[in-house]
Fold this protein.
Amino acid sequence: MELSKKTKKIVIFLLILNLLLGGVWWLISKKIDNNITKISDLEIELDHQLIREKQLNSAKRITLDTSVERNQLDQYFISPDGIVSFIKEIENLASIASVSIEIKSVGVKEYFIKEKESDVLELLNIDLDTVGNWAGNFYFLNLLESMPNELFIDKLSFNTSDGEDGFKNWNGKINIKVLKLK
């Protein structure tokens, strides 16, 4: 049985149409798969961004919540431009203790933490001499130790001399090391 030309044309047309529709369907499914992959990648990236944003907000909140504590910690160190005011504070303490002092030297050197130079701290080194009675010198040392700064009395020595008023003067040599912010 032979098909007529019209039937053959219809069959060929339907085959071509079927192939075209199959190709279009394949292209659309590929685009949908690509879009699904892109959406999945974007969802993962969004999740990571949300995690980073939560961490950033947490860090900001911690920074705000700890501002009082950080300010208190800053009091343990001399500010970068606070050497002169720190020395004036020492002089005021000596005056309170009725001791005269003479600053012999002031120096700043690098501070090392576990044999590595600190990026934040320096060491302020002050040599000073005191003259006064024993109680005044002792009170001066107590006042130094009660300062909020991280202060180390590295060297300390006292000797006596005769004072003009007939009492013994106690002459002290003190080396102080204090942590200072760079």
Summary: DSSP finds four helices and four strands in the chain. The chain has a mean pLDDT of 88.
